[in-house]
């Protein structure tokens, strides 16, 4: 059935099943993808000299200028603001110093909680009762409303992360997470309901990352897009054991409440516990940049359309020390992804390869702070969005070794599956399904997602799982170890524990996939059962009727 689906997807893209388009030129470009080029870019971008590439910092600015210099060297046209390579992303920068008490019990920061302001004031305060709202989801298509019958206006909602499918395969999409599982959705829905604050309950299982990651991401210098104010004053995370004590003080049992919250018909309830929070911050306006370079297409009828190849260059900057190191270098996350798109651009340059549609190479800022750079390109469109044919995202590449397969989340959602299958086959690889990434909700956690929400078919590459010369358990073992010891920690440095061999494979498949999408007779389309089909079909040219 997957073979049939792949062939149908290839047909939908207008691709020749046998490979087609001037394969000698594409083969030459794919072979030109260089391990040395990828490694050189990683080693510079992830060096201590760039101080973790925090958004709005000196190190982040150096990274952006370095990438722009590479675009100049490779002959890419500037595609940013004012005929430059830089697309401006205005930000609010701040360093929070929060306090929080629940029912009069003072919590320790950041061991017990992490809290950030949702208003751009130097002092934000909330003193309001708690309301437990389960997963905090309103999803009519699933017959689910955790806020039904509740008045949370001016109160602090206590919310579980993920969605009910985590423990009941018959609900939502089972263990494959939906956007309703994402913490950003929880904040959005709480604001729609008029809440003054949000406290997410953290467990390693439900959050899919350890508390150390929450600390690393939510403390120290932070940046946000400047947005219109909502009801929300504060939002953050609380350790499960800490929240359990607050429930006990209120005469409730957290474990029992969380179990009931996963069942149809759950009703949220008020807790006779007061949350008192303050967040003092030193705030300043700052900015980061997306770096955009265009390789023009060769077909006059299609050159106005683009296929985006994107990767975020920012990381967490300088933050809480871990084992004496406070520079969060972000080698795999995501200097390596930038290395991949730069290596693809260089390979195309060496092979003098262009597509019928144009390519837009995009290095995003502000991803770690909440997909800020990519979202800014949708909020202030960098071009008419109906001309964006597809987006290929490169984040957390395979630095663990060569594989017999490659994976991409989102490939099950659109006809890009056909392009991916055809590209992988020409590299002697199979396309596998990264189920662990789907369970983690990775599709909603990187720069592909703002494009997806705008209706643009997108995929985000993931490491394969069939490692050459390794046991079957190697993939899960190495990914789990990385999450526990390097993800969003200073230990994500480039060293002998990483190999770029798998990144070369991934880049070659990415290059071929991009060419397929650029040369197809029609733009990729969403599958009929995709949750993004409706918004995709609404993305039409002026005067063109919706589909």
CATH class of the largest domain: Alpha Beta
- Mean pLDDT over the full residue set: 92
What name does the CATH topology of the largest domain carry?
A: Aminopeptidase
**Biggest sheet overview:** 16 strands, mixed
Shape: globular
What is the CATH homologous superfamily assignment of the largest domain?
Answer: Zn peptidases
CATH architecture annotation name of the largest domain:
3-Layer(aba) Sandwich
Please work out how many helical segments DSSP would assign: 17
**How many domains, as an integer?**
2
Helix content: 25-40%
Into which percentage range does the β-strand content fall?
15-25%
What class do helices, strands and sheet pairing give? alpha/beta
How many angstroms does the end-to-end distance come to? 27 Å
Task: Give a description of the structure.
With 547 residues, the protein is an alpha/beta fold. It has helices at residues 2-12, 23-32, 35-45, 58-73, 183-192, 204-207, 211-218, 240-249, 254-261, 331-351, 372-379, 416-426, 435-440, 448-453, 474-485, 501-519, 533-537; strands at 77-78, 86-102, 105-106, 113-117, 123-132, 138-139, 144-145, 156-160, 197-202, 222-225, 234-239, 269-295, 306-312, 317-322, 325-328, 358-364, 388-394, 405-409, 430-432, 458-462. It folds into two domains: 2-91 and 285-537, Aminopeptidase, CATH 3.40.630.10; 94-283, Glucose Oxidase, domain 1, CATH 3.50.30. The strands form three sheets. It has a 16-stranded mixed β-sheet that branches. A two-stranded antiparallel ribbon has the order 6-7. It has a two-stranded antiparallel sheet with strand order 14-15. Strand 18, helix 12 and strand 19 (430-432) form a beta-alpha-beta unit. The model is unreliable at 1-8 and 16-21 (pLDDT under 50).
